[in-house]
Amino acid sequence: MNDHGYTATNFLAQLPKVLANDSRMNALATAIANALVTHLGDLEEEKIYTRIDELPEDVLDILAHDFKIDWYDYDYPITAKRNLIKTNYYVHRHLGTVGAVQEAVQAIYPNSAVEEWFDYSGSPYHFRLALESALPVIPFSVEALLTAVYRYKSLRSHLDEIIFRCTLIVGISVKTGYVPYWGRITGTYPARAVQGDMHLAELEVNTTTTDSLTYGVRMCGTVPGGLF
Question: How many percent of the chain have pLDDT more than 70?
Answer without folding.
Answer: 70
